[in-house]
Automatic annotation (TrEMBL):
It comes from Hypsibius exemplaris (Freshwater tardigrade). The keyword Transferase does not apply. This is Coatomer subunit delta. PROSITE patterns: MHD (PS51072). One of its GO terms (biological process) is endoplasmic reticulum to Golgi vesicle-mediated transport. InterPro entries: AP2_Mu_C_sf, AP_mu_sigma_su, Coatomer_dsu, Longin-like_dom_sf, MHD.
């Protein structure tokens, strides 16, 4: 493949920028690009057009065209692959993708084009490598900057300490009635600088002795533990002698804290007099191709009453799709639970204890059905000409649940080399032998995502197990509180609720 030039044109065919990779005159490239829009008017919907001497391979990108000018005998498959890489580079520097944005970032685009093609031939680089090369990020430079900042910070701290020492010397000189020592020995009559420095150092040491011996003087003005407490006690005793009754501030604070604790949990932000709390935990082991080996989901539902007027309750619970095994607390009425789906004490007049967490029920699901996996991972490592290429895809099967703080960790064994990431739906970090793929939220708006990376060496089996971690504020099995009523008169009671789903183990081996 011989690539003659790469250009970005507007819809009318006007060249916004062009980069030639072989010796070509300006009039030659302008003539070729001027003929490009005329060839486009033939009505043929192809990704390339040809003339007698060259081939135009193009791709529309919003309001512009990415155009490659190649020889007619070049490999069209390689041309299209190179075109796709060029088209992915443009959004890295142009956010609006219009003429003004392209012209504004022309030099950055040209530098990136030079990393893709050299002397008319395609370089074996990815988008991540292009980004690194154009940014010219240097680890040595970062270390040097950090060292310089540390030195500046230490110099500032040293100057502050020196200023404090000088201030202390002035204070000590005022107390003892002595004059400040001459700074730098400028009053010495000896003109020899080497002999002048010696008496200055000796004088400075002699004058500093009182400052360091000051704590030995029993003046009572030095810093001592308990001095503040003694002053407060003297002030309180003085007020008491005058007939005043004073309570120390510490005792008042302790009393206020006790009153706050005795008032229950009503002061917690967003919590009502009846607060329901449910927790779920998932444990999953699956194959690298997404096949499920085992999955277990366990949960518990509890509530706490802080309002005495709402201590006699009956709770109507939605058990979701009914897949899970439910176990009700023995103290609740089993007949009312089976017939009406209501959890209530056997004695309606019995009240729940205040400020105490009361467990209602537990649930559990064990399955090996693959369609029950909430978030499936498909990992495909493939040996390439240089190293291993890995493609990972996630799919959210439980689209009614929002997963948060999702982290997919892929092990990179020692000796494989640092991974070079291409496409990534989200963010990634590489440290301590793991490539961590981070997605803040996965819901029905981003049900699937892809991560692609390559390593200089390795084996396809070395990238397992892939570990996943996430949380959610929704139940996987749909177990929720529908309504809470007073057990005596059936009146609805206002309540608040929280749910936490967390991962115990989530691996694809």
């Amino acid at each position: 493949m011989v690539l003659l030039a790469a250009a970005v044109c507007n819809k009318q065919g006007k060249a916004l920028l062009s980069r030639q990779f072989v010796d070509m005159t300006r009039s030659r490239i302008e003539g070729l690009l001027a003929s490009f829009p005329k060839l486009m008017t033939t009505g043929k919907q192809h990704t390339f057009v040809e003339t007698d001497s060259v081939r135009f391979v193009y791709q529309p990108i919003d309001k512009i065209y990415m155009v490659l000018v190649t020889t007619r005998n070049s490999n069209i498959l390689e041309d299209l692959e190179t075109l796709r890489l060029f088209a992915r580079v443009i959004p890295e520097y142009c956010k609006v993708l219009d003429e003004a944005d392209v012209v504004k970032n022309a030099f950055s685009l040209i530098f990136a084009f030079d990393e893709i093609v050299a002397l008319g031939y395609r370089e074996n680089v990815s988008l991540a490598q292009i980004r690194t090369l154009t940014e010219m990020d240097s680890q040595d430079e970062r270390i040097q900057i950090a060292v310089r900042q540390t030195q500046e910070r230490e110099a500032k701290e040293a100057s502050k300490r020196k200023a404090k020492e000088l201030t202390q010397l002035r204070k000590d000189a005022v107390k003892t009635g002595r004059a400040m020592p001459a700074m730098g020995g400028m009053g010495s009559s000896n003109s020899n600088m080497s002999s002048m420095s010696t008496p200055v150092v000796e004088t400075h040491r002699q004058e500093e002795k009182p400052a360091y011996q000051a704590p030995k003087v029993s003046s009572g003005k030095g810093m001592k533990l308990g001095t503040k407490a003694k002053d407060v006690d003297m002030f309180v005793n003085q007020l008491k002698s005058e007939g005043e009754k004073v309570m120390s501030q510490a005792a008042t604070s302790i009393r206020k804290a006790s009153v706050h604790e005795s008032s229950g949990g009503n002061s917690a932000a967003g919590r009502a007099g009846v607060h329901v709390e449910s927790k779920e935990e998932i444990k999953l082991t699956a194959g690298g191709d997404g096949s499920l080996e085992s999955m277990e989901i366990t949960g518990v539902l509890a509530f706490k009453v802080t309002d005495e007027s709402s201590s006699r309750l009956a709770l109507k619970i939605d058990l979701g799709d009914g897949r899970s095994q439910i176990q009700l607390h023995p103290k609740f009425d089993k007949d009312k639970w089976r017939n009406q789906g209501i959890a209530a004490l056997k004695n309606p007049e019995e009240a729940f204890p205040l400020n105490t967490e009361v467990s209602i029920l537990k649930w559990r699901l064990q399955t090996t059905e693959e369609d029950q996996i909430p978030l499936s991972i498909n990992c495909w490592p493939t040996e390439a000409a240089k190293g291993v290429q890995v493609n990972i895809e996630y799919t959210l099967n439980a689209t009614d649940v929002e997963l948060r703080d999702v982290v997919i960790s892929i092990p990179i064994p020692q000796g494989y080399g640092a991974p070079v990431v291409g496409d990534c739906d989200g963010e990634y970090t590489y440290e301590r032998g793991y490539l961590s793929w981070k997605i803040p939220v996965i819901d029905d708006s981003n049900e699937t995502g892809i991560l692609e990376f390559t390593t200089p060496s390795g084996k396809p089996t070395g990238f397992f197990p892939v570990k996943v971690d996430f949380t959610s504020a929704q139940s996987l099995l749909g177990v929720t509180i529908e309504e809470i009523q007073r057990a005596t008169d059936g009146e609805p009671v206002k309540f608040s609720s929280d749910h936490l789903l967390k991962v115990s183990k989530y691996e694809f081996v």
